[in-house]
Amino acid sequence: MKAVVRRGSRLVSEEIPAPRPGPGQVLLRTLACGVCGSDLHAFSHGQALAELGRRVGAKNILDPDRDLVFGHEICGVVAEYGPGTEAVLPVGTRVVAFPRATGPNGLETVGLSHRFPGGYAEQVCVDAAMLVPVPDGLSDAEAAMTEPFAVGAHAVARAGLGHDGVALVIGCGPVGLAVIAALAAEGVGTIVASDFSPARREMAIAMGAHRAIDPATESPFAQWPALGVPPRDAVIFECVGVPGMIQQAIAGASAGAQIMVVGVCLTDDVILPYQALSKELRIGFSAAYTMDEFRETLARIADGRIDLSRVVTDVIGRSQAEATFAELSGRDHGQVKVVIEPWRE
């Protein structure tokens, strides 16, 4: 099969062996796969990710010197079930896949695994229990957005913010937009977004934010008194993932507020615990999602509660992947989400 392969500092389109589904697994023919920030991190900082894996005791550590096929935001078609596997959905069913497959060391993330190549390839294997059928009327690219937007749904669920609460979303890249979309779908009464980019602030409003702030001209944390929110109904979602952002949230939070960290920071960071203690802040971290949140996110996309009309900004073939990664690694690139169709060059 053809795939986009990370090889050293390159992304190359070439032929690789097709995967075979094992017991309990299913083979999908990939229709579309989104480009995630995790893919960009793994491409540019493979050695750092390997070291992080060792520090946290991960069982499946990426080797930056080995070939890797990215892609975990997957829409595909059921092609074949593994030996002895119940055919939960008929062959030919269009699905989105919770990107997990079971290997010798337990569950692995498809596309961030040397054992399970991801959706930048024409075929991909996942556990058969991880499939959700795609409703008619959704494009393949829209369906592939289920995975990244489920990340936002999980963060909002963990925060437990009521309809009368106030959410402040710091950073309006794909993660921040997913959080905003989930907050809007949950009917949260006041959603304030903050980002330096005018285009991202505009997108934040389109996804459901009630106000978007340029932190270069005003502090997003100065909004608390004007909003008049009880402290425990205020949540800051940190969606940037660079050193210093958690401490900025601690310093800017109102007493009794909650901070939910969703941005992925790959380095050590420093906070002032006493400042958080003195305000009795609640600080939590959110990663990935549950299967129920994955299903609900697809339902929200299908019925329009999450509007993707401006989210997918480019759909590319395999040969454009390397140039697209270079573009997305720069600042002010203007893209929101890029989708790869690995079946076309």
Question: What can you see in these coordinates?
Answer:
The protein is an alpha/beta fold and 345 residues long. It folds into two domains: 2-145 and 311-340, Medium-chain alcohol dehydrogenases, catalytic domain (Quinone Oxidoreductase, Chain A, domain 1), CATH 3.90.180.10; 151-285, NAD(P)-binding Rossmann-like Domain (Rossmann fold). 29% of the residues lie in helices and 25% in strands. The protein has eleven helices and 17 strands. The protein has helices spanning 37-44, 46-55, 140-144, 146-159, 174-185, 198-207, 224-227, 245-252, 273-279, 291-303, 321-328, and strands at 2-7, 10-15, 25-34, 73-81, 94-97, 100-103, 106-109, 123-127, 131-133, 166-170, 190-194, 211-213, 234-238, 258-261, 282-285, 312-316, 337-340. Strands 3, 4, 5, 8, 9, 16 and 17 form a seven-stranded mixed sheet that branches. Helix 11 (321-328) links the parallel strand 16 (312-316) and strand 17 (337-340). Helix 4 (146-159) packs across helix 5 (174-185) and helix 4 crosses helix 10.
Classify the secondary structure makeup into a structural class. alpha/beta
What general form does the structure show?
Answer: globular
**Proportion in β-strands:** 15-25%
- Stretches where pLDDT is under 50 for at least 5 consecutive residues are none
Topology, number of strands: 17
SSE layout and pairing:
Elements: E1 2-7, E2 10-15, E3 25-34, H1 37-44, H2 46-55, E4 73-81, E5 94-97, E6 100-103, E7 106-109, E8 123-127, E9 131-133, H3 140-144, H4 146-159, E10 166-170, H5 174-185, E11 190-194, H6 198-207, E12 211-213, H7 224-227, E13 234-238, H8 245-252, E14 258-261, H9 273-279, E15 282-285, H10 291-303, E16 312-316, H11 321-328, E17 337-340
Helix pairs in contact: 4-5, 4-10
